[in-house]
Design goal:
It contains 11 helices and 9 strands. It is of the alpha/beta class. It has 2 domains: 148 residues, 3-Layer(aba) Sandwich (Rossmann fold); 73 residues, SIR2/SIRT2 'Small Domain' (2-Layer Sandwich), CATH 3.30.1600. The strands form 2 sheets. A 6-stranded parallel beta sheet has the order 3-2-1-7-8-9, sandwiched between helices. Strands 5-4-6 form a 3-stranded antiparallel beta sheet. A hairpin with a 5-residue loop joins strand 4 and strand 5. Helix 1 packs across helix 11 and helix 7 runs parallel beside helix 11. 37% of the residues are buried.
C-alpha cells in the first residue's frame, strides 16, 4: 500500500466536513459475507438450485416459489455470524468526528449500523425488517430466523412474510433514494469502496456528486477510476483503518 496515497487520503479527510461513503459488497466480504460476483460467491448456488441468485431473489420467484426463496435466503443471509470489520469501524469513527456525513450502501447486512454509523442509506433494504405481503403488518427478524428456512406466515391474515429487501423487479425506496441523493449532492468528498459500480440504478446516484475529489478503493477496475483523485487496489479495511489512524485524535 502506497503510504504517500494514504497520507493524501488523510489530508483530504482533514479538510472535509461532508464526506460521503458509497459502498458495495466488497465492504462486507472482509467480514465473511459472500458477494454475488466472486468466484466463491453466490453464483455457485446455480449448482444447487438450477437458477442464478438473480432469479431466486426476484419478486416473481418470491411469489411463485416462497419455499425455495426462503431456503436460499436463510442459508445465505440469516446464518451469517459476520461482525463489523475495520472498514465499518473506521467509517463510524469518521462520522463521530464530524467528517463523514453519510454512508450510502448497497448491502443489506446492517454491519454499518452495528459498527456505530447513524446516518446510513440502505439502497437495497435490510435483512433486519419484515412485513406481511398481504396485510403489511411488521415482524422482527426473529420471526423468520426461528423457522430455519421455512416459509414465515402472518398469524393475523396468513399472508407470507417478506423481507424488507429490494428484490429484482422491484423499485428502490423513494425516501431512501431522496436521502442518498441529497447527501451525495452536498458532499465535499466522495469515498467509493468495495463496489464494481455495475449495479444500477444504485451506481447511477454518483452522477449527483458535484465535488472534485473522489477516493476509490476496490480490488478491480471501475468506470470511475479515471475520475478518482486516488485509487487503492488494497483491502478496504486496511486502507480505511490506516487512514483514520493517521488522522490522530
Amino acid at each position: 500500500m502506497d503510504t504517500v496515497d494514504i497520507k493524501r487520503f488523510a489530508e483530504l479527510l482533514k479538510g472535509s466536513r461532508r464526506a460521503v461513503f458509497f459502498g458495495g459488497a466488497g465492504v462486507s466480504t472482509e467480514s465473511g459475507v459472500k458477494d454475488y460476483r466472486s468466484e466463491d460467491g453466490l453464483y455457485n448456488t446455480v449448482k444447487q438450485y438450477g437458477v442464478p441468485p438473480e432469479v431466486i431473489l426476484s419478486r416473481s420467484f418470491f411469489e411463485s416459489s416462497p419455499d425455495v426463496f426462503y431456503d436460499f435466503y436463510y442459508k445465505y443471509f440469516l446464518q451469517s455470524s459476520a461482525k463489523p470489520n475495520p472498514a465499518h469501524i473506521a467509517l463510524a469513527e469518521l462520522e463521530k468526528r464530524g467528517i463523514l456525513s453519510a454512508v450510502v450502501t448497497q448491502n443489506i447486512d446492517g454491519l454499518h449500523q452495528a459498527a456505530g454509523s447513524k446516518n446510513v442509506f440502505e439502497l437495497h433494504g435490510t435483512v433486519y425488517k419484515y412485513h406481511c405481503f398481504r396485510c403489511g403488518r411488521e415482524f422482527p427478524i426473529e420471526k423468520v430466523k426461528e423457522l430455519k428456512g421455512g416459509v414465515p406466515r402472518c398469524e393475523v391474515c396468513g399472508g407470507i412474510i417478506k423481507p424488507d429487501v429490494v428484490l429484482y423487479e422491484e423499485p428502490l425506496d423513494e425516501d431512501v433514494i431522496t436521502g442518498a441523493v441529497t447527501a451525495i449532492a452536498s458532499a465535499d468528498l466522495m469515498i467509493i469502496g468495495g463496489t464494481s459500480l455495475a449495479v444500477y440504478p444504485a451506481a447511477g446516484l454518483l452522477r449527483y456528486y458535484r465535488g472534485r475529489e473522489i477516493v476509490l478503493i476496490n480490488r478491480s477496475e471501475t468506470q470511475y477510476d479515471s475520475r478518482a483523485s486516488l485509487v487503492f487496489r488494497d483491502k478496504i479495511g486496511e486502507v480505511m483503518q490506516q487512514t483514520v489512524e493517521l488522522l490522530g485524535d
